[in-house]
Amino acid sequence: MIITPHLLAGAAIGSQTDNYWLAAVLALISHFILDVIPHAEYDIPALKRKIKGRRKLFFDLAKIGVDFSLGFLMIIFLTKNYTDVSYILTGMFFGILPDIFSFLGFVFNFRFLKTLYKYHTALHFFRKMSIHKWIGYASQIVVVLAAIWVIK
Prior knowledge:
72% helix; 6 helices; mainly alpha
């Protein structure tokens, strides 16, 4: 999944608990569960070192930045009346932590991060299947709408 559904799902989990550890563990687990569901993703070839060039890298980073910003702004808007958002922020952070590790694995090539990346990628088994792109979009829309409903 792209970053926004992971951010919102983690935030939704955090909004339903008053325990940091529970929010962190459940949000982390939710990331992997959501990645098993067939979904669409945008391509980031420069980050995956398939294409070289600063301009391509800039566009890959811009895609990620816009995606993260959209999810984060939605959470800010949805939680503007909350008095304590610390559990929500915990869930949000742990909801995208595997993607943060994947990004760091691309940048620094640590063995641990490469192992985690392989596991993370293996969960995307649907990539080998032929699914219609609208199914991939619909699954993410459902996750986003469900998270919004839970947070509100």
